[in-house]
Amino acid sequence: MLEIKDLEVGFGGITALKGISLSVAEGEIVTLIGANGAGKTTTLRTVSGLVRPRAGKILVDGQDVTRLSAQARVKRGLVQVPEGRRVFPQMSVLENLELGAYLRKDAKSVASDLDDVFARFPRLADRRKQHAGTLSGGEQQMLAIGRALMSRPQILLLDEPSMGLAPLLVQEIFSIVSEINAGGTTVLLVEQNANMALQIAHRGYVLETGKIVLAGTAAELTSTDEVKRAYLGG
C-alpha cells in the first residue's frame, strides 16, 4: 500500500535520510524504531509531503506521489498525526475535529464519523466545547488521533504517540492504535518506546543515522540481540 524507494533527504549540508527503502502492506502496522536523530520523524514528514526529498520515490497503491503537495496526499488517504500532537489550542475540541474533515464535502458521513470519534474517545465527547489547549496530554493525543480519523485515512502516519504520557495512558493509546488497525486502517508508526511499538506491530525497521540497519517481523526484531541491547533494555 505504501512503498518508499531509495529515499534521500537533506537539510543544508546534512543528509538526514541516506537512501532508505521500506514498504507497508494493506492492513499492517509497521513501526520505525531508532534513537533520537535517526531519521524517523523526517521519514514520516517526507511521506506526508511536509519535506521534499532530494532523491527517491514514494508510492501509494503503486501511484507515485513524490511530487504531490501535502494536501493532495491527504486526498489520497495519507494522514499524519504529528509529533507533539499539534492541536489548535484556542479552538474547541469540536472545531479541531471538524478541521480534520476540511477536504470532505459529504456532510452526512462527516457527522457520522464525528459520532464515531466521540464514541471511541468519550473524554473528547465530554469536552467537545472546551479549548483544546486546556486538555491533558493524553486527551490532546486522543484529539490529534481523532482529528486524523476525520480525514478517513487509508494510511495513518503516527509520530511518537506515547511522548510525554503516563504509562497507563501509553497502554490506552496503543490499544486504540490496535483497534484502529483492526478496523481496516493501515498504520506506519514512529515510536521511541520500542517495546510497546513491537508489541502491536506486525513488522518493523530499525533506523540508525538515516539508514535502515535491521528489518523483520516484530517477533524477529524483539529477539534480536542488537534490538534488545539498544532499545529493549536487555
UniProtKB/TrEMBL annotation:
Transmembrane segments: none annotated. Pfam families: ABC_tran. Residues 2-234 form the ABC transporter domain. One of its GO terms (biological process) is L-amino acid transport. Gene3D superfamilies: P-loop containing nucleotide triphosphate hydrolases (3.40.50.300). Keywords: Amino-acid transport, ATP-binding, Nucleotide-binding, Transport. SUPFAM superfamilies: P-loop containing nucleoside triphosphate hydrolases. It comes from the Bacteria. InterPro entries: AAA+_ATPase, ABC_branched_ATPase_LivF/BraG, ABC_transporter-like_ATP-bd, ABC_transporter-like_CS, BCAA_Transport_ATP-bd_LivF, P-loop_NTPase. The keyword Metal-binding does not apply. GO terms for molecular function: ATP binding; ATP hydrolysis activity; branched-chain amino acid transmembrane transporter activity. The keyword Nucleotide-binding applies. Belongs to the ABC transporter superfamily. This is ABC transporter ATP-binding protein.
